[in-house]
Amino acid sequence: MAIRKTFSATISLSAFAVALGSMATPAFAQDEDTDEATETAETTDGNVIIVSGYRASLENAVAEKRRSDLVVESVSAEDIGKLPDASIAESIARLPGLTSQRLSGRSNSISIRGFSPDFSTTLLNGREQTTTGDNRAVEYDQYPAEVINQVNVYKTPMASLVGQGLSGTVDLRTIRPLDAGKTIFSIGARGSYADLGKLNVESNDMGYRVNGLIVTQFADNKIGLSLGASYVDEPYQIQEFNAWGYPTTGDGDFVIGGSKSYVTSTQLTRLGLNGTLQFEISPTVTSTLDAFYSDFKDDQIKRGIELPLYWSGAVLQPDTTVENGFVTAGQFNGVKGVGRSDVFQRKAKLYSFGWNTEYEGDDGWNAMLDLSYSKTDRNELSLESNWGTGRGSIGATDNIGFQSGPQGTVFSPMLDYGNFNTMLLTSPQGWGGNQIAPNGDSILGGQDGYYNNRIIKDTIWQARMEVEKEFNGNFFRSLQAGVNFTDRSKSLVPDEYFLGLVANTDGLTSVQVPEQFRLGTTDLTYLGLGPVISYNPLDLLDAGIYKLVPNAYGDVVVKSYSVNEKLLTPYVQLNIASQLGGAELTGNIGVQAAITDQNSSGATAVYLGQLDVPEGCAAAGEPCAPNIGAQFQKFSTSYTNWLPSLNLSLRFDSGFVVRAAAAREIIRPRMDDMRNSLSFGYQFVTLPNGTTVAAVTGSSGNPNLRPWLANAFDLTFEKYFGNKGYLAAQFFYKDLKSYIYNQDVVIPTSDLALASPGEDIVIAPTAVLNIPINGEGGSLYGVEVAGTLPFETFTAALDGFGITGGVSYTKTKISPTPGAPSEDLPGYSKWVANGTAFFEKWGFNARASIRYRSTFVGEVSGFAANRVRRRAAPETIIDAQIGYDFQDGSPLEGLSLFLQGQNLTDEPFVTTNPGDPRQVIDYQTYGRRFMAGFNYKF
């Protein structure tokens, strides 16, 4: 049945390896009766050679790619529970044409064919999933590699593939216990070590993970059960340099404008549970229940110093070193540093349930019913706490030397930032101004920190029904027709407060960190800043040292939104199987309709007039906060997209396969871009005549957005050497008919409810708002060359050795703004390459893997957890693994031991200002990671 072959998880317990250092090769789906990636062959003397483990997984992958009608890449478990990558993203990133972006040193998002993660979708057992991010793109940290049995990446769509993406569709597959055919128990554990050490005083440099899996059958193999679990408790350490930017001096030379740099320690804990219960109700009816649960926690502590330099009252001394218009060394006097001790806590729980029933009749009729539910609850708390020498103009300033180079800027301060007696809890720069809450609570002399809690809920209900009729004709093999309904809702509620010292009642107070909360110092020697004071701001908040003052300004309430979309997706697909002379033609042709009803609600800030003057505000003689309300609005729209598709594969007896595909592809807009909300604020400009003008700028979502659309064409040429190896060249072209980009629009400020900017300040007559709109598209095209070559194909002397990998070249011409120069897509790298050299024989195995991607536009977390796009430098990641599998007949049969190393060259993540790589914005190092562990299957 075509449905089952495409959308039911198939099992290959020792299929393609995704252990660290491996790289998968393309495959489509494993045979349903395959329970282990082994292959047998007879020698000329009649003896049987058994090929197992990684080599067999490669051969299975080659065979499945050869049989596939779509352009597909695939990875499967080398062995049950034998998946030591930190997340499934690190395994997928080794596929041809795919790459990843690192977050905190680990891969968490995937780019396919030069498109950012926004252009792909991820399914779990063929079903759409909620996400832990603000958009549709799945962050793969949420999915333990150990509970995933197989991943299929569809680079071309077909009509029966629901939830498809524009760049590709990633389908995560869990085990089907009846397909396994036998009882299997698997356990594994590993320890990890981060060689950067304990960067923050209370952090860790060692961690662990454990996993287990049970697969069994009952009632004469009529009932199957699989239960899997994985628990991770591992640290990640980061040294971060970040520059505000690079303004020009009076001489026209670029110089660092300011620095916000930290050491960050992350403790990642994740519990992943997966269960499948499968019933063979009759020889023609099978019913399957799936459940997946993930409890994810990412706790970070960040400590550093924010240094206002050229963009502040600090003075650049005249004795500087300038190279080709760039100041590489010098000194700033009068620097008032802002010490930072920040906490970031991300908690997410994901629930996913599915029920599938399939009927495979004896008369050629087949049917399927699938119901599913997915939900994610997420909280992101960002707590900023400031310290320094004194509040505002009070306290010592520093004279700081600096040297700017390819790794950022290193400083030479005069002050001791690790002295708890002189470094105080305060607002050193008075940033944020005097904040007054509606109840009269006040923070005078600037805010001492900020509390930002983002509450996100995401739910998906999905129902699908399909019928298939198989034919006995000599061209069309079968006809599929079905309909899918998806109802998705996503909402964000911000909960934000100013952080103020309880003791600060006069606008001058700064206090020492109480002794019971002093944690020692954190070393910032890599920045030249030496030790800095360390404490946990959550402890101070819980103890009442800090108080929370609600942020009553309109820029908070307008961050909230709710987006709901209902999609009805009917489709019809004809499957092809025919002999053309000495060749075989297979494939499918069909059409899918995406009937969409979307609506969004959000808030626009409304100025309700000045608050009554509260006590304390008047006493201090300070202006009081404006009375800001919100006007909530809802917007709805509906539309239909028709998505035809064609996939053809021509197979020759000589081992050549030629594939051609054409389709209309689609991806829906980012959900945060669809919000119906509007926020705005002031930027103050002083004119030559002394008048201060408040320029109004802001941003808005667009609930009327339509999807990205593309006409796509693929042509591939493949040569197979039996089932042992292959070489392939895959050409693709995408003509983007619609592209979503941000555009500035000008509106009268009289249309906005604006708060008073202050006395003697004039509001500009027009406001500039930045909104996402549907614009012109462009083209993206390229070629992927991939292959798997066991050296035994050429000579028996090299039995056990081999290579596998791929190189991709992609070119883009995207001009979203009419008349503007073409620009790169987010996540686009012109070159992507990955490869693995391996040896496996007599139980020994060794692999070395390399991943390269050229420069790209990456997304990093900016202020208030907002996404920021920056130009990232090329990356080359090298991993390796050695191991031993105890052989059949050994007392330890079934036991595997391994030692692994990640990021062995300590490759940094670097972003720079466009056009000048000397202007380093981010320079992050993650260090090397080493893991040792075992897996045992019995």
UniProtKB/TrEMBL annotation:
<dbReference type="InterPro" id="IPR036942">
    <property type="entry name" value="Beta-barrel_TonB_sf"/>
</dbReference>
<keyword id="KW-1134">Transmembrane beta strand</keyword>
<dbReference type="InterPro" id="IPR039426">
    <property type="entry name" value="TonB-dep_rcpt-like"/>
</dbReference>
<comment type="similarity">
    <text>Belongs to the TonB-dependent receptor family.</text>
</comment>
<keyword id="KW-0998">Cell outer membrane</keyword>
<feature type="domain" description="TonB-dependent receptor plug">
    <location>
        <begin position="66"/>
        <end position="168"/>
    </location>
</feature>
<dbReference type="Pfam" id="PF00593">
    <property type="entry name" value="TonB_dep_Rec_b-barrel"/>
</dbReference>
<keyword id="KW-0675">Receptor</keyword>
<protein>
    <submittedName>
        <fullName>TonB-dependent receptor</fullName>
    </submittedName>
</protein>
<feature type="domain" description="TonB-dependent receptor-like beta-barrel">
    <location>
        <begin position="420"/>
        <end position="904"/>
    </location>
</feature>
<keyword id="KW-0813">Transport</keyword>
<dbReference type="InterPro" id="IPR000531">
    <property type="entry name" value="Beta-barrel_TonB"/>
</dbReference>
<keyword id="KW-0472">Membrane</keyword>
<dbReference type="InterPro" id="IPR010104">
    <property type="entry name" value="TonB_rcpt_bac"/>
</dbReference>
<dbReference type="InterPro" id="IPR037066">
    <property type="entry name" value="Plug_dom_sf"/>
</dbReference>
<dbReference type="InterPro" id="IPR012910">
    <property type="entry name" value="Plug_dom"/>
</dbReference>
<keyword id="KW-0732">Signal</keyword>
<feature type="signal peptide">
    <location>
        <begin position="1"/>
        <end position="29"/>
    </location>
</feature>
<dbReference type="Pfam" id="PF07715">
    <property type="entry name" value="Plug"/>
</dbReference>
<keyword id="KW-0798">TonB box</keyword>
<keyword id="KW-0812">Transmembrane</keyword>
